[in-house]
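Changelog-adjacent note: as of this version, every example in the card shows the full chain rather than a window. The one below runs 186 residues end to end.
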Amino acid sequence: MRNSKKWSLNLSINAIVILILSITILGLGLAFISNVFGTATEQFDEVKGDARKQMITLMEDTDDIVALSRLTVDINQGETKQIFIAFKNTGDIEEEFSTLTVVGGEGSSLKNLAGNCGTGKTSLEYKQATTSVVARDVVVLPINIVTDNPLDDVCYFEISVEHSSDLTDALIPKTTEKIALTVEII
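Full-length structure tokens:
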């Protein structure tokens, strides 16, 4: 009888030691995974920041008012990719920029294009509201390209950007800049 009490006490101590070791190993594993993913997120943010800086430098060195980080994008079926659009205000007062996208086809200056971009859907997600840009400055915004198109296809988008010192006032003239974007679904 004495031996069974000793063994049960010994068994409980072993169970407690195993539990403590398991919790310690689990904590170390979680810390490692968090560190790996945290580093990857920081590196991704650095790449996004570098792309924005490159866009600003590009805009400062050109006469372009509107520019895309890439004019052609290859995207896998069911994938989302991000590019950047930059607006430059060359004037001495604040300007407002507004973006409008037209898929190639009717209403577009791009010719001989399918308006539905194949059997699936390919779209651009971007800021819908106007963007204010102070005098002599550049603003860079992301554009997400999303597709669920099941077939290899090529989609053409015409991105029109209106800008003016006041887009809501009909008496103030507005200027429209157009950029063609090609999305190749592979």
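Structural remarks: Residues 1-61 form one domain.
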